[in-house]
Design goal:
The complex is a heterodimer of chains A (263) and B (77).
Chain A (H helix, E strand, L loop, with lengths): L3 H6 L12 E6 L4 E3 L2 E2 L1 H11 L12 E4 L3 H24 L2 H18 L4 H14 L4 H9 L2 H16 L4 H15 L3 E4 L5 H12 L6 E7 L1 H11 L7 E9 L5 E9 L3
Parallel strand pairs in A: 5-6
Antiparallel strand pairs in A: 1-2, 2-3, 6-8, 7-8
Chain B lengths: L2 E6 L4 H7 L3 E3 L2 E3 L19 E4 L6 E3 L2 H10 L3
Antiparallel strand pairs in B: 2-3, 4-5
The chains are: A alpha+beta (263), B alpha+beta (77).
Amino acid sequence: MVGFSEILSKVPGISFNIGTKVTNIHITNSGVLVNGKDQGSIARQAILDNINSGKDDDSYPCDILHEDLLGDYKSLEEIINKEKDLLKILKKVLPENRFEMILMARRVHFAIEKNEGSQKIIALVSKLDGDFPRDGKKVLNLFSADYFNSTIFPLIESFKEHDPDSYVEKSNDLFESILRFFPIAIFVNNNTSVGKISEELRKRLGLKKIPFIKIHAIGLDNISKVETALLDLKDIRFSIEDNRFTTSRGIAAQMVKIKFNYN
Amino acid sequence: MEKVMVTFDEGSKEDVVAALGLVESEETLKDSEGLFITNQNFEGVELKNFGGVLMGSKVFINNDSIELVKFFSSHLE
């Protein structure tokens, strides 16, 4: 396949540095920017005339993308490049639509990590919720609480080590059960009331053989709500471990682990 | 290897679609052989939703982030 940049370099009227790693061509209504430099309407037409050049039966030689998708494209590309090994583990054990939900949730979480702006984040959360209304936000919460790294990946590795013949099935069951019952985590956000925290705690305390409950809260207001809800939890069957830390963005955070004393 | 990324704005979408050899037929786009183009779910792609096509693929996408997710997922080796 002939490289698109090679073809473009022979088009009269277009000048760009062929040695650069990525050549960004942005076509507008009246002109074209090549690596940020306006090349005018003649170059625009030359690029459009050659946009199909180099295409073979199987594929296009370059990405041709609506500008609205550029941010998502770059973020997903970075996520895949940096987390390919872990994502491949999930892709191997989960059905395609579940993996796509996880990748979409990771995209949303990435936007939060990179502080891409509240409007963009709200739009992405809405998109996630619209495409995966039952479990999308739960998966986002799992990322926020670092559950994939702390719980899901280690358990998948353990299944694989101890029972390689059925680890895919077990891993699948684990993921589905986490989503279905969501038993060991409570995520407190600005819309979660003290009453709601107490209610979620009572629900989980009624479950049989649950080893512990983790409550995650970010921000002083949310931490205060957790403290109030915990005042009701004075029972000798439980021990409470209250971990405080500061997030990478400098916000106060809390992870309370309530352990059950079965002895 | 050098990579080329072509982006287009909403105002130039029709020109890009035409340059790719696509024509609109009853809202859905057809290729030069008169076949309806489809996305990864084998659904027709309409001009108003056209999002482009990605390197290494001949499947067109809608202007929808979930279609990028599907592309990256299907190309995760």
